[in-house]
């Protein structure tokens, strides 16, 4: 039985349908996604990209980071796990928390009041025990995402400024927030372009045929707005 949609969702869908059949240029999609933000809070703007990859194969795993030019609009809580000599540096760079053993214990006891964990290589042996807690939530520090690093201060500043991590899911899709409905359409478009440019750069050599199959923008509560794949030609 099809899911019954709420009044605001139906109104947003009607706005998209009135704009045409789609898919839309990225500029048009950015404007439409703002118009479909009908909730009473500042909705996130999400981008979904369906890739022609098989994530079951290690050589087709797409994972990376990108610094969004306008950030995500979300306050990111950063925890730095490092030896005591690095705590002051981390906090001065903007980290919300910095420590080691006491935070490891708190996490094991259920504390998860953070969005990103950054660690130095020297303490990863201690953090390994947190893998079963942080891993499923996408919070485990990883060198590939820039969250295991000697340059703690730079990593903290980048995350606070709008660097996001992304990873293809088991169905071959990328899904991440790239801004807020309160952003201008130009800010949404420029963030989307930065994200897509990095996705294209990460194309696995083993992928045959179409790499990007579809792109949509949507708000937290709204329907997807299809984006024309022609946008990719301007980003190569």
Automatic annotation (TrEMBL):
- Which Pfam family, giving just one, matches this sequence? Ribosomal_L1
* Name of protein: Large ribosomal subunit protein uL1
MF-aspect GO terms: rRNA binding; structural constituent of ribosome; tRNA binding
Q: Which family does it belong to?
A: Belongs to the universal ribosomal protein uL1 family.
A GO biological process held by the record? translation
Q: Does the keyword RNA-binding apply?
A: yes
Show the PANTHER family listed in the entry.
Answer: 54S RIBOSOMAL PROTEIN L1, MITOCHONDRIAL (PTHR36427), LARGE RIBOSOMAL SUBUNIT PROTEIN UL1M (PTHR36427:SF3)
* HAMAP family referenced in this protein's UniProt entry, alphabetically: Ribosomal_uL1_B (MF_01318_B)
Q: How does it assemble?
A: Part of the 50S ribosomal subunit.
Q: Which GO terms describe its cellular component?
A: large ribosomal subunit
Give UniProt keywords alphabetically: Repressor, Ribonucleoprotein, Ribosomal protein, RNA-binding, rRNA-binding, Translation regulation, tRNA-binding
What is the role of the protein in this entry?
Binds directly to 23S rRNA. The L1 stalk is quite mobile in the ribosome, and is involved in E site tRNA release.
Q: Which NCBIfam families match?
A: rplA_bact
